[in-house]
Amino acid sequence: MARAFLVLAALFGFAGVALGAFGAHGLRGLLSPEYLEVFQTGVHYQQFHALALLGTGLLALHRPGRLLAAAGILFGLGILMFSGSLYLLTLGGHKLGLVTPFGGLAFLLGWLCLGLVGWRLGTSA
């Protein structure tokens, strides 16, 4: 899983930079300020969680486990659901209902899993 998480972190990070630049330069004037802010929120959450996925992948190289795998999967799903739904809303006007909050919940659960991994590291030495 470590390799997959590291590759996904790089892809999500790359896409986040590209989407951020596109939003800042290509969408200004095409979207309302409110929609541009929603788009940038998607970019910010994508970037933060690409870094979380990177950290998860690096940790998985040394301490693989189910909780860590769950954290990485949840971070990836969160990016797709949360950020992806915001991109679809702003670029295509597609409202996906509960997809955005479920993406946020995936982020929260990913952080919870990662926190539990950290907690257990202190007791397994």
Description of the structure:
The chain has about 120 residues and is mostly helical. The protein has one domain (about 1-120). It has four helices and no strands. The protein has helices spanning about 1-25, 35-60, 65-90, 100-120. The longest helix is centred in the middle third of the chain and has 30 residues, at about 35-60. The radius of gyration is 16 Å and the shape is elongated.
Summarize the structure.
The chain has helices at residues 2-26, 33-62, 66-92, 99-121. With 125 residues, the chain is an all-alpha fold.
Helix count from the secondary structure assignment: 4
How many discrete structural domains? 1
- Tell me what portion of residues adopts beta-strand conformation: under 5%
Radius of gyration: 16 Å
- Overall, the morphology is elongated
- Mean of pLDDT: 94
Work out the number of β strands: 0
Low-confidence stretches: none
Distance between the termini: 23 Å
The helix fraction, in percent, is over 70%
Order of helices and strands: HHHH
Main beta sheet, described?
none
**Which structural class should the secondary elements be placed in?**
mainly alpha
Topology:
Blueprint: H1 2-26, H2 33-62, H3 66-92, H4 99-121
Helix pairs in contact: 1-2, 1-3, 2-3, 3-4
Task: List the main descriptive attributes of the protein structure presented here.
single chain; 125 residues; mainly alpha; transmembrane; DUF423; transmembrane helix; DUF423 domain-containing protein
